[in-house]
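Study this one:
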Amino acid sequence: INVTNKLLIENLKVLREGLKFQLPEPPPPEVDLFPPYNIRTYPLDEARAEPGVEVDIPGDNITAYTDGTLAGCYIRIDSATNDAIPLNEFNPIRYPAKFEKFYLETTAQSGKYLRLHIGREAGAEAAVQITAIAAKPAFYTLKSDKDDHFTGALTTGNKEDVNLVGLLGNKVIITNIAIQADQNLDLYLMFWRKDTFENSDLDVDTFIGAVQLDLSTFGHQVGGAGQYYMSLERVD
């Protein structure tokens, strides 16, 4: 009985003083060695060939801007063998997981630059917004003088080769074509992705498209003065 009483007394002392124990200290917070985002500017005077140059910057989203064109610029995430992501079709690029690096492939565009915003973590939800610049209307005139360029009247197979400054670039969107002529012929306006017009230069891959300007069917005579007019307001 005495032993039992002593045990009860000891238990009461323990309960009175409370249980004393020490919790383990929490681990120190991880030190982030990288900023929340990075801005990198790449001159486009020289091309970066496939698969591109390696960029060792981690992140989860990439937003691109250029004063040239994004066509022909690609990103490969994490590996040079991964599929190329065209920046002119996917911008910004939001990656579901964090990448450690990427590969940048670009075309050569003299005097132009490419700027990348490389975000991390919550950056995918707060990606940089690019404000589109409204297109400015411009008018280009192609004039053909049959006395200078052709012998006699315009006939089947005649052609006129002219470079229109401002059209040699993919930033131009043609929305309307108007033609005025002194003959109501069925003409074709053809576009090529070249700045010279030698036969050897006009490959199939440089042909952009053609627009039919059929004055004989859709043309209107202007004031009965032997002039014919036609406007094509929807150009694909």
In short: The chain has three helices and 13 strands. The CA atoms of residues 106 and 169 lie 17 Å apart. Residues 2-17 form the longest helix (16 residues). The domain at 37-124 is CATH 2.60.120 (Jelly Rolls).
